[in-house]
């Protein structure tokens, strides 16, 4: 499998990975600059030359795969008999610099209802590197002609026509998906709210609408759905940034997208703090820091 296909496979399976590239070579080395290796959780594709270089790079890539918000980094290897690495000696006589580029799992967003606001929101979110799910009960909202404005999207777009029980789509979404409910039918919105609260593993849940609509929904979710107040509070409504009050579809879409991007940042900061806390716990339990020999 080519490295391009391997990266695409990781993206399709929503699995984190690292693209490892031989960035520079001085003197003799197993592979030329540009050689690539893709490292997933349990599999690898390609090669940067085998031996200690590749084994150390894979070890480090696996560590990065377990980090919340990894950054690209360089590793330097001296290939001589004076340097002993964790996986042996490579004495080709040269020196190699390897670039590790994390391939994190991207955020996922599901928009239920691709009407005027939903389409405007999709146009904005399509410019982001994420998985975007567009779900509607109406086939005319999902025609190729109507969605042609998303043709140059950076996002990976999944279109789903769900003529009956669109709430069943919730169970098929990836873990952590942020859900935005903005259909044309208040009964459909209510069913989606109820189902979203019953679906484990979702990210945030947002509902478009007025305070009067939410008051009715909240009462119904409690009385008919049997949801506790704390659970109902997971649903954010109105959605968007407070203070932006325009009702034009594009204005609402900008406000909702900005609020969602802010939520992404908060997710990343929370994950980084968890990593820092885990690192502090590990430091307290170690007598000395671990150093990868033969790399920098």
What does this structure look like?
The chain has 296 residues and is an alpha/beta fold. It has a six-stranded parallel sheet with strand order 8-7-6-9-10-11, with helices on both faces. Strands 3-2-1-5-4 form a five-stranded antiparallel sheet. The protein is elongated and about 70 Å long. The longest helix has 36 residues. The C terminus is likely disordered. The protein is built from seven helices and eleven strands. α3 crosses α7 and α4 crosses α5.
Mean of residue pLDDT values: 88
| Number of beta-strand segments | 11
The N- and C-terminal alpha carbons lie at a distance of 30 Å
Query: Could you state the order of secondary-structure elements as H and E?
Result: HEEEHEEEHEEEHEHHEH
Described by strand count, sense and barrel closure, the largest sheet is: 6 strands, parallel
Oligomer: single chain
Major sheet: arrangement of strands: 8-7-6-9-10-11
Quote the beta fraction. 15-25%
Based on secondary structure, the structural category is alpha/beta
Radius of gyration: 24 Å
Which spans of ≥5 residues are poorly predicted at pLDDT below 50?
287-296
* Helix percentage range: 25-40%
Shape, per Cα inertia axes:
elongated
Count of helix runs? 7
């Amino acid at each position: 499998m080519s490295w391009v296909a391997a990266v695409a496979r990781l993206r399709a399976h929503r699995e984190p990975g690292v693209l490892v590239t031989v960035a520079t070579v001085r003197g003799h080395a197993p592979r030329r600059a540009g050689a690539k290796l893709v490292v997933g959780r349990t599999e690898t594709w390609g090669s940067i030359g085998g031996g200690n270089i590749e084994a150390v790079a894979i070890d480090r890539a696996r560590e990065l795969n377990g980090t919340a918000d990894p950054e690209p980094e360089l590793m330097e290897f001296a290939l001589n008999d004076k340097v002993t690495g964790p996986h042996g000696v490579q004495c080709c006589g040269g020196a190699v610099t390897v670039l590790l580029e994390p391939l994190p799992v991207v955020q996922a967003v599901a928009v239920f209802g691709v009407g005027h606001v939903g389409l405007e929101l999709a146009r904005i979110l399509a410019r982001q590197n994420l998985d975007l799910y567009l779900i509607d009960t109406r086939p005319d909202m999902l025609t190729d002609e109507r969605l042609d404005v998303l043709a140059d999207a950076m996002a990976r777009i999944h279109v789903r026509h769900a003529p009956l029980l669109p709430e069943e789509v919730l169970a098929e979404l990836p873990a952590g998906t942020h859900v935005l409910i903005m259909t044309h039918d208040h009964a459909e919105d209510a069913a989606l709210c109820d189902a979203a609260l019953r679906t484990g593993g979702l990210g945030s849940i947002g509902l478009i609408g007025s305070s009067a609509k939410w008051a009715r929904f909240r009462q119904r979710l409690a009385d008919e759905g049997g949801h506790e107040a704390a659970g109902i509070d997971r649903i954010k409504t109105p959605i968007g940034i407070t203070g932006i009050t325009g009702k034009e579809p594009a204005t609402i879409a900008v406000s909702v997208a900005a609020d969602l991007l802010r939520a992404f940042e908060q997710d990343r900061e929370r994950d980084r703090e968890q990593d820092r806390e885990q690192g502090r716990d590990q430091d307290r339990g170690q007598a000395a820091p671990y150093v990868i020999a033969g790399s920098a």
